[in-house]
Each structure stands twice: as structure tokens, then as C-alpha cells.
Specification:
Blueprint lengths: L5 E4 L4 H5 L6 E10 L2 H13 L11 E3 L27 H6 L4 E4 L5 H10 L2 E4 L5 H5 L2 E8 L8 E15 L11
Parallel strand pairs: 1-2, 2-3, 3-4, 4-5
Antiparallel strand pairs: 2-7, 5-7, 6-7
């Protein structure tokens, strides 16, 4: 019997996140932010200085992606996940600000796993190498902040049935731990 695929709409709340378990398959809908290393670094520097963030992290989801430029008639270019561990130094700080989920590929550090438990958040994995396919699930794209970063700027994306798997849940479990 096939397992049920969970439909998720952002922003996420504690109850939704607490019901997700490592291995759950999800289709994500609504607003998700795209950001990579340099944008994360700037967000964390703003938090450290007590500044106002350019996005509201409460219940938010950040997709670790640097999309390629859109071709004429397209909303976005290829949008495949970036290696998650590149954001490990920044993620706990952002989870503490209300971020409820991140999306990337690959492993997360012990510190990130502890932060997921402490702040009640999850990390999703998306299929690496499938950027063109995944971009079909992005129906809107708008530059939000740090335009000077090019592909690493912060974008507000609108997802429609974006496929992902809960790789790390809010209880410390991971799909990578299962044999």
C-alpha cells in the first residue's frame, strides 16, 4: 500500500511541523524563499546587529537554491537544490527567528539537527540534478533582497506541488539514519 503524500501550505506552524516525520513525502505549496550562502550570511549579520530582516521568517521555508535565469516565457530557470551543509553555520540562527523549514540536498550537521529539535523545525530534501524538472513546480518568482548577489539573492517563489521528503524531523530522526 502506498503511503499518503502530505500536502503542505506555507507558512508552516508548530502543529504541522510536529506531525512531520523523517521519510514523509510532501508536496509544498505557497510562498517559499530562495536563498544561498551569501544571503544567509547577510541575514545572520542583520540579526546580530538587531536590524530588520527583508523577509518575515515566522513559519517560513527557505529553499537552498540559486536559480538560473529564466528563458523568455518562463517564470524561472533551472532551480535544483544546493548542498545543505553549506548553510549549516547559519541555519540555527534562522530557526531561532521562526524559520520552520529548509529545503536542500545532502546531510546536515549535528548542530543543525539539535536546532531543528530545539526550535521545532524540519529539513526537506529535494532531488538533486533535477533543476529543470523542479522549476516546473515554481509558478511565480520575485526578487526580494540582495540583488547584487545575482543567483544568490533572496527570491520569493510560489510553489505548486513542489515534491520533497522530510530528511530531518523535529524529533532528531533522519532518513539518512535508516538502513
Amino acid at each position: 500500500m502506498a503511503e499518503k503524500i502530505i500536502q503542505l501550505c506555507t507558512p508552516l506552524n508548530d502543529a504541522v511541523v510536529r506531525n512531520l516525520r523523517a521519510g514523509d513525502e510532501a508536496l509544498i505549496n505557497s510562498v517559499v524563499y530562495a536563498a544561498r550562502d551569501q544571503a544567509h550570511k547577510r541575514l545572520c549579520a542583520l540579526i546580530e546587529r538587531g536590524g530588520t530582516l527583508p523577509i518575515d521568517l515566522t513559519g517560513a521555508v527557505i529553499y537552498f537554491v540559486g536559480p538560473t535565469p529564466a528563458r523568455p516565457g518562463q517564470v524561472i530557470g533551472a532551480a535544483g537544490p544546493t548542498t545543505s551543509s553549506r548553510m549549516d553555520a547559519f541555519s540555527p540562527i534562522l530557526y531561532a527567528q521562526g524559520l520552520k523549514a529548509t529545503i536542500g540536498k545532502g546531510y546536515r550537521s549535528v548542530e543543525v539537527r539539535k536546532a531543528l529539535q530545539q526550535y521545532g523545525a524540519v529539513h526537506f530534501s529535494a532531488l538533486g540534478g533535477a533543476g529543470a524538472l523542479l522549476s516546473r513546480h515554481i509558478v511565480k518568482s520575485e526578487l526580494v533582497a540582495y540583488e547584487d548577489l545575482g543567483a544568490e539573492a533572496i527570491w520569493q517563489l510560489e510553489f505548486r506541488d513542489f515534491p520533497a521528503v522530510v530528511a530531518y524531523d523535529a524529533y532528531g530522526a533522519s532518513v539518512y539514519d535508516k538502513k
